[in-house]
Inverse folding.
């Protein structure tokens, strides 16, 4: 192993990939896509921010003044017969005619909404929320119930998860843990496949180009393989960082451009009210506590540990799999032939992803334990288990085995690689592959 | 002194033996021809010398030392199957390859620039390799083989893919490098290359060495003591002690061209003396076997032995 050679190869692998058009396009498109997911809903909401004019024909007279005007909707109460008003409505500039029939608690008639175009979901649900609220009040009045008493009856059950072990008590949250674990392992899964196959394509390219013979007459095949694997790892890290920075920048920039901060707050407030999400955020403190509590539970996650392990398992898993991908690339003549070897190589990963749901509900089952220490599955499975605070020795064992597994894999991969890159025009069988392991290099 | 000494090298693959007990020496400063039919084991031997693979048995010495990875930077190798990174710029690629051969960034740049001037290809620097013609790519590949001024240059069919003008250009460069002290090993089927350039040859057939030595010495070994004679007159050799292999009429009237073999116990002078009694001799020349003849004869004899 010669470090200067590995460094030179690493540099070339890194620079040629980072300078490629496809890398630049992917790096820019990725954040645009992520940002679009965040921005488009806001943009759409803003765009549809024309004011809907709603005329209300309230036969009961109970609801006048109960509908609150907002930026996106203005209410106007009218009188007359429905038939006349309908004719009038068609000729007017109003958008919606809301007809509230005479009110009878025992035998309610349906409320009717006439609209020139399909009304938005928010508008409709806003109207029905208001109606429901008022009817509830009317019912309470009719039944002689004090609204204050009802408010007192309202209860919220909230379970605090507390982990009790030798080291004391620790607050936990399974919801946050589930999300964190699943997100981390999914990212690892995606990135390992993405960058692993970049390594494979690189190897196949060198092999079909025939440049490999020139290179390995100067450097050891192992150095070439390691240089490539590490070079692509840096490409991955670069892309990852750029994605985070660019996504943040684009989202922040675009939101600032679309709306000034004041109307933005208003907008989101209005959206919340219309959709009935957290309808009474502003009135009641407990709901604010809900948000604070969610933040709290995120805080209960051991963020530095999860981030640290994410990096460790991402790199460890990537190194193991990209070495295997490199070996597969060396064993075949073109990408089409690679399928027969790629599938068995990736089965452990796919299996761990398929079983993710099971591990989330049974993070301490023996299957979860074994797969979280087995090097080919641990990057995904341990990340799922990690937020559920598995014993420290299990994490350490899993890490140790990942390192050992990496060394074993690189040994096997290097041997296959060494022989494979010089083989041409021959379909390789598994039997042959196993023989390559013992060729004298 | 030998730059390369191969000692009893054997290399086996699962299905066949590529080399069996091959020993040879490549004298320092020679132009060495490594010959043999397709599949004889030449490429296997070259790959062992370039440390792409290791022998199962036997040893290789480079300048008297056991061959080590550090020696790789003192060897330049042009494989038969050429290849470059297609999407990399020519200049950038050559600098990269020379740095792998151990040159510093500065030296690499300088040396590569020298070669661009020598081959008058300065405007190729920023072109992608895939935009060059095949011949142009071969030139780039040749530069990559010799840019680090190796002591030993191994060329596997170096002239294939070149037009005659470029082939001559490359040949002249090889000779220039040889004059500057590099040892050259040719692996080739083109016998005119061997005839013209090589001073030593080794012939490998069916994983074994079957012929080894200086070209002139080998030629002498393969002397068949045949002579080509042309002249004017009527040849009547019914009572001659010499064996006539062929005779035919020459272009001029009454002229002939004949080939005789001298059996042991006789000398060329005796043949001339006897001929002068019959005809007028215009030309008398020993038929020296060409390297092609030697190649074919050795390989055929070797096959018949089995």
């Amino acid at each position: 192993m010669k470090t200067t050679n590995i460094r030179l190869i690493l540099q070339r692998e890194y620079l040629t990939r980072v300078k490629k058009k496809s890398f630049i396009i992917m790096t820019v498109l990725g954040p645009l896509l992520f940002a679009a997911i965040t921005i488009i809903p806001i943009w759409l909401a803003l765009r549809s921010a024309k004011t809907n004019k709603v005329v209300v024909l309230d036969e009961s007279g109970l609801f006048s003044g109960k509908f609150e005007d907002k930026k996106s909707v203005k209410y106007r109460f009218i009188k007359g017969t429905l038939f006349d008003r309908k004719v009038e409505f068609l000729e007017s500039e109003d958008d919606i005619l809301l007809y509230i029939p005479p009110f009878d608690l025992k035998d309610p008639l349906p409320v009717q909404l006439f609209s020139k175009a399909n009304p938005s979901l928010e508008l409709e649900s806003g109207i029905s929320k208001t109606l429901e609220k008022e009817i509830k009040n009317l019912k309470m009045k009719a039944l002689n119930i004090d609204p204050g008493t009802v408010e007192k009856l309202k209860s919220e059950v909230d379970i605090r998860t507390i982990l009790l072990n030798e080291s004391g008590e620790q607050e936990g949250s399974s919801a946050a843990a589930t999300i964190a674990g699943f997100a981390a392992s999914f990212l690892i899964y995606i990135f390992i496949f993405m960058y692993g196959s970049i390594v494979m394509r690189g190897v196949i390219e060198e092999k079909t180009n025939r440049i490999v013979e020139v290179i390995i007459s100067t450097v050891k095949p192992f150095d070439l393989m390691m240089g490539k694997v590490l070079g692509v790892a840096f490409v991955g890290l670069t892309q990852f960082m750029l994605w985070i920075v660019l996504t943040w920048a684009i989202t922040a920039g675009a939101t600032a451009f679309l709306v000034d901060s004041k109307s933005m707050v208003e907008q989101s407030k209005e959206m919340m009210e219309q959709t009935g999400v957290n309808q009474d955020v502003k009135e009641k403190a407990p709901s604010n506590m809900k948000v604070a509590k969610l933040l709290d539970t995120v805080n209960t996650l051991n963020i530095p540990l999860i981030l640290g392990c994410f990096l460790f398992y991402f790199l460890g898993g990537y190194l193991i799999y990209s070495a295997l991908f490199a070996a597969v690339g060396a064993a075949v003549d073109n990408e089409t032939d690679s399928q027969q070897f790629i599938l068995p190589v990736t089965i452990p990963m796919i299996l761990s992803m398929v079983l993710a749901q099971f591990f989330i509900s049974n993070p301490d089952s023996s299957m979860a334990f074994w797969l979280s220490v087995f090097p080919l599955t641990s990057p995904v499975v341990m990340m799922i288990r990690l937020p559920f605070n598995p014993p420290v020795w299990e994490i350490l064992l899993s890490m140790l085995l990942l390192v050992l597994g990496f060394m074993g894999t690189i040994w096997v991969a290097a041997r296959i690689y060494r022989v494979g890159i010089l083989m041409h025009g021959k379909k390789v069988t598994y039997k042959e592959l196993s023989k390559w392991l013992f060729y004298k290099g | 002194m030998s730059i390369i000494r191969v000692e009893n090298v054997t290399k086996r693959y699962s299905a066949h033996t590529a080399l069996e007990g091959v020993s040879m020496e490549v004298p320092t400063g020679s132009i060495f021809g490594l010959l043999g039919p397709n599949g004889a084991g030449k490429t296997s031997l070259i790959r062992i010398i370039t440390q792409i693979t290791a022998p199962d048995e036997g040893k290789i010495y480079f300048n008297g030392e056991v061959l080590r990875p550090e020696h790789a930077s003192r060897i330049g190798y042009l494989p038969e199957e050429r290849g470059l990174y297609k999407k990399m710029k020519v200049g950038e690629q050559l600098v990269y390859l020379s740095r792998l051969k151990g040159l510093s960034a500065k030296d690499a740049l300088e040396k590569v620039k020298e070669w661009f001037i020598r081959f008058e290809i300065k405007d190729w620097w920023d072109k992608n390799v895939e935009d060059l013609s095949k011949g142009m790519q071969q030139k780039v590949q040749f530069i990559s083989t010799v840019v680090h001024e190796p002591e030993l240059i191994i060329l596997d069919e170096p002239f294939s893919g070149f037009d005659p003008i470029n082939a001559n250009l490359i040949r002249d460069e090889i000779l220039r490098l040889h004059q500057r002290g590099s040892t050259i090993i040719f692996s080739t089927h083109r016998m005119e290359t061997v005839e013209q350039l090589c001073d030593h040859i080794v012939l490998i057939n069916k994983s074994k060495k079957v012929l080894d030595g200086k070209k002139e010495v080998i030629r002498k070994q393969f002397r068949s003591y045949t002579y080509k004679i042309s002249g004017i007159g009527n040849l009547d050799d019914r009572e001659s002690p010499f064996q006539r292999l062929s005779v035919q009429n020459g272009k001029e009237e009454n002229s002939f061209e004949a080939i005789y073999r001298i059996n042991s116990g006789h000398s060329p002078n005796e043949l001339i003396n006897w001929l002068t009694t019959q005809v007028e001799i215009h030309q008398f020349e020993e038929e020296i076997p060409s390297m092609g003849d030697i190649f074919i004869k050795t390989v055929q004899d070797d096959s018949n032995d089995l």
Observations:
- Chain B has a mean pLDDT of 89.
- DSSP finds nine helices and 14 strands in chain B.
- Chain B touches chain A through 31 residues (CB under 8 Å).
- The first helix of chain B runs from residue 42 to 49.
